[in-house]
Amino acid sequence: MLTVNKLLPQGRGLAPVLLKRAASVELDWDVRQKSRFDATDSTGRALAVFLPRGTSVRGGDVLVAEDGSLVRVTAAPQDVMVVTTCAEHGSRFDLLRAAYHLGNRHVQLELQPDRLLLEPDHVLADMLRKMHLVVTPTQAAFEPEGGAYAAGGHAHGHGHSHGHDHDHGHGNASAATTEPGHGPHCDHEHHGHEHGHGHGDPKPDAAASGHVHGPHCRHGHSH
User: Fold this and answer.
1) Which of 25, 156, 213, 222 has the fewest C-beta atoms lying within 10 Å of its C-beta?
2) pLDDT tens digits for 179-207?
3) Whole-prediction pTM value?
4) What family does the database annotate (predicted)?
């Protein structure tokens, strides 16, 4: 078995002629989101892939084996649900709202300008149809967004931390529109992310904390 321990994102830096000559391997997302897996390439070689933990493999990436040979990765078609707006009753906002609710449930999503792709789930399909969206089962390559899922695995009950701080001072109501859409039927739970948002027109208890500053605030701060 040939060990593979290096990945070149999208074959960056390689000459096209080398990519053309390279063997290939077709993998679905269930395999590609892992950093360690076995596979068989187009020449019949057995591969033992050992990438740094947290690495996921995308279609178009190139694996480098211990003998220096290259293996091009193709994203294999797999079962997915394609979510689009209803031409009769819907709007683009419906997709935005759906992405918010799905993301809040830690669902892996591929985002496209006019559609969402996710792995099959009949409960989520019913929820999306109730939101006046069209859900179509099909087979396609699946490339969900990275970020929170870069470490691989399905995000059910995991804990993660974001390596950045948010410190936004919103001094007017229009800034609030940048927040995720909390619609009248929003029943989501808030997860343990701490964002330092100071919104205009704060509640009395928020103002008492001394950390919410209005647009015309000129007093000194000592944090």
Assistant:
1) 222
2) 344 443 444 444 444 444 444 444 444 33
3) 0.63
4) Belongs to the UreE family.
